[in-house]
Structures are given as structure tokens and as C-alpha cells.
């Protein structure tokens, strides 16, 4: 899976502090590694989007907006058959964000948590009106008005959502460190179904470096670690009387057969047999 460099992939590599792009796709399902070289506000118009960062994962639909600070993320996007995925992507550099904070005298405590790299906000009447105003502008208008529009949105968000979460997001964007801790990345995304390649990407490591550091940290291979964790969770879910046909999807197996095969290999019995005997007290 190739990694997309954004916003360069969308704007032809042009260097600018602000870029707004109306994104459309008719693919029913996409999963991409993305290198965000600028911070991003994503206003989803149609479809669903799930973003996995180094320490958070957030899933939104068209009733929410998404804020993501610059860095490596994995994105899953999906739409209903016959529809198009649509979103407004508002990219802005740290230079623009610093100038905004200076202009409006915004400062943040050094004690704030800086792990909030991804956050979602529910659309309200103002954000819905802001969305419509962006949609009404032509691309050439956005080139001239983009900075003002993003500044307008941030003035509103900084007034209404000056919560620890929002302040943490802004401070993270301004003080992001280059290297993510492997243990944090692994534990945050343990049940998300990400591949070794994708986890290495979130850690800014090659696959071989990731595996080497993983085995040093967890004293086993990534494959064994994640299989053990998934099987332990599967066992707990079966004891809560969840159906195997529901569990395999939650644990991100491709189908029920692959889940059942893995479970039997691990515990010596099928999920149904384990559930039946456990609940019967055998």
C-alpha cells in the first residue's frame, strides 16, 4: 500500500500555507496510508471515514468534522453503493496556526496533554453554514479566500470549543514530536485490524526496524502478540454470549471461517463448542 503525501498529492506539489480541496470518490471502500505534511480539517459531506493516528482513532460520518494534526495516519473510507464519497479538506500549516494564535492572543498551558492529534466535532448550525459557504465558492475563489475561511472557522472553534480536548489538539499541532512511542501505537491500535506495515508506518519506522523494536519491547513476534490478544478478546466476548458471526467482524477478520480456524488452532475447539461448554459449566 503506497503512502499518499497530502496536500501535495492534491495540489500538484505547490507550496502554500493553506489549501482547500473538494474531494470526491466513487470507490465503495478505500484504505490508505497518508502522510499529512500539514494539519487538516475534514468536513465530511457523504460517507464514513475512520482515521487511525499514533494514539487515537476516530470514526465520523457526515454529521461531524474531523481535525487531524500533521503526521502519519491510516484512513479507511466507505460509502453506500450508488453514492459518492465527498468531503471538504482544509489544509493549514503550523505557520498559519502560529500566526492565528498570535493574532488572537491564544496561549495554552504547558501542562496540557499533547497526545490529542485527532479529534471530532459535531456539526452545529454554524459549522453547517460554514460548510455551505465553502461549497458555494469556486476553486479560484478558495485560492484567494482560503486563509480567511480557515481563520473564520478557527475563531469560532476557539470560542465555542475552548475545552481541554480542543486546546490539546492545537498544542499538539504546534509541539508535535517526530517519533512516536511503539508501545503507545501498538496498545492504542491493538484491536483495530491494522497490518504490521501500517503500524510501522504510524511509528515512522521501516517494517524490519518495527519488528526488531517490537520483539525487544514485547518479547515475542508481532504475529504471535496480536493473535494472542485477539483470541483472548474473542474468548471474553463468547463468554458474554456474543455470536461468533458478530465477533469475527469486531475483531477485523475477513470472514467467519478464518476466525473459526484461528480460534480452533489456538484453543483446540471451535468458537461454538467453546461457548456451549463454557456456558453450560463444563
From TrEMBL:
The keyword Transcription regulation applies. Gene3D superfamilies: Homeodomain-like (1.10.10.60). GO terms for molecular function: DNA-binding transcription factor activity; sequence-specific DNA binding. Residues 180-277 form the HTH araC/xylS-type domain. Keywords: DNA-binding, Transcription, Transcription regulation. The keyword Cytoplasm does not apply. SUPFAM superfamilies: Homeodomain-like (SSF46689). This is AraC-type DNA-binding protein.
Amino acid at each position: 500500500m503506497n503512502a499518499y503525501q497530502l496536500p501535495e498529492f492534491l495540489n500538484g506539489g505547490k507550496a502554500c500555507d493553506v489549501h482547500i480541496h473538494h474531494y470526491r470518490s466513487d470507490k465503495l471502500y478505500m484504505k490508505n496510508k497518508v502522510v499529512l505534511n500539514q494539519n487538516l480539517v475534514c468536513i465530511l459531506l457523504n460517507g464514513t471515514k475512520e482515521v487511525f493516528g499514533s494514539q487515537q482513532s476516530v470514526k465520523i460520518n457526515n454529521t461531524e468534522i474531523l481535525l487531524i494534526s500533521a503526521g502519519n495516519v491510516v484512513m479507511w473510507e466507505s460509502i453506500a453503493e450508488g453514492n459518492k464519497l465527498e468531503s471538504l479538506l482544509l489544509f493549514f500549516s503550523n505557520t498559519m496556526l502560529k500566526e492565528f494564535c498570535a493574532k488572537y492572543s491564544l496561549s495554552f498551558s504547558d501542562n496540557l496533554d499533547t497526545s490529542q492529534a485527532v479529534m471530532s466535532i459535531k456539526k452545529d448550525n454554524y459549522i453547517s453554514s460554514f460548510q455551505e459557504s465553502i461549497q458555494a465558492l469556486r476553486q479560484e475563489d478558495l485560492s484567494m479566500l482560503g486563509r480567511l475561511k480557515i481563520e473564520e472557522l478557527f475563531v469560532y472553534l476557539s470560542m465555542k470549543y475552548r475545552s481541554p480536548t480542543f486546546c490539546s489538539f492545537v498544542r499538539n499541532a504546534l509541539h508535535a514530536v517526530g517519533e512516536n512511542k511503539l508501545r503507545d501505537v501498538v496498545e492504542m491500535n491493538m484491536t483495530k485490524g491494522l497490518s504490521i506495515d501500517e503500524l510501522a508506518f504510524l511509528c515512522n519506522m521501516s517494517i524490519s526496524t518495527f519488528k526488531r523494536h517490537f520483539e525487544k519491547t514485547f518479547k515475542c513476534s508481532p504475529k504471535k502478540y496480536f493473535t494472542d490478544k485477539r483470541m483472548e478478546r474473542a474468548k471474553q466476548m463468547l463468554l458474554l454470549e456474543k455470536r461468533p458471526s458478530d465477533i469475527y467482524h469486531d475483531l477485523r477478520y475477513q470472514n467467519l471461517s478464518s476466525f473459526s480456524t484461528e480460534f480452533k488452532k489456538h484453543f483446540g475447539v471451535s468458537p461454538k463448542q467453546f461457548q456451549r461448554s463454557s456456558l453450560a459449566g463444563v
